[in-house]
């Protein structure tokens, strides 16, 4: 037969072994009882805390607010409070804590003392700060992008960057935000604008390379080619518009939410999930409402389950291994981050602290779980944001291949590698023949499409993992071929020239052919200690100059 035990016993063990700091404080701010985690978070011993006042560790800027809250507790105005405050530990470090305070009263409802719980959220605060900086950087990149970008909701501008404002003659975005987009359209294009909006909203499909005419504040007409797509902005369906390119603006928005648990008396009102578990079977003997909330299962359902039933499959073996060592008295407690699968199938993260309860039963353990799902989500979103920012900074907005910035970095890297290993490095520079005449004849829309086809063909020609194609500037492109001899570079250049010509893109005003062609310069160098990457760029550029000077639609090797 199972031994009977009281909730007071469970609370005392949970109090002593909790991963978060817990304390009992008098109404005048004196510490009456603290647990080891509380001492660890403050850096003070129990004796030092019992001789101190709460104001000795609270940050000065938060002191007055907490004093006022204590008065409200003492006057019976409130019985529960949760807030984020700063405290100063023994090493004079400023730390952040999520502090939950509840009032304990006697049977006559007279206030007795306060139960205080401190969850260290310093790391989360730092993550939030870093994420905000990342979001601010991303927003600044959008605001200051040379490509005009705007967002409108129901035909009214709700966002515009400086380039979008400038294109209609405004000094800054504030002069266009809140204005109907039809105010910036030539009258003959208003109906077309309505059709585009209706199509995007009804189908959810994006549109690219749509011709429009804008009118500026001075009455001038501006020809633009835009791409538009459906997005959610401030919680509403909106349309994002990008001028001159088809780069889709991705907005990083994040809402941080916290799930507050109320203290409802000793064991049942603890702000963290607590469970009493039979270590031999893994069955849940008892639990508090916080565990029900965390897992989605009721206490009755949990009592019929092993903890393995709602533990993520990839974390079960580690948890069981630690539990086995705990029951063998090889350790007094253990702590681990693990994933749980809730009743709805959602995966949540918890910081689990498990200790033996030998005064209850030899093989009973108590588990205290702190929800750290938000922290994990913040870390993941921060990683995604950083990857997006890195991709944005290295990608050419029109063609989608690498830009000049990436070319410079990659060439330096491969130059250094070739020098260390004593291997040849080949650089191919090429540009489109008579491309200005192409734009003058066919327009910039088809000109952009031509550049995209050439970029895609060049990218497909560079077959090896280390080969890189980048837009060098305008209609000029570059191909870096590591560990490639002169013969191999010449062969790859001729293959590229032929494949571009095989695209058969019409060019009736070309002085070389009836189709779009390229001139190619090739240079191969095995770097020495006295040379810089600019050496191979200059060599390839001179070869390209010869190709254009002679017949064009040809290659020349330096």
TrEMBL record:
CDD domains: GGDEF, PAS. It comes from the Bacteria. Pfam families: GGDEF, PAS_3, PAS_9. Residues 7-77, 259-330 form the PAS domain. InterPro entries: Biofilm_reg_signaling, GGDEF_dom, Nucleotide_cyclase, PAC, PAS, PAS-assoc_C, PAS-like_dom_sf, PAS_fold_3. Residues 81-133, 334-384 form the PAC domain. Residues 423-558 form the GGDEF domain. This is PAS domain S-box protein. It comes from Cytobacillus spartinae. The lineage of its organism: Bacteria, Bacillati, Bacillota, Bacilli, Bacillales.
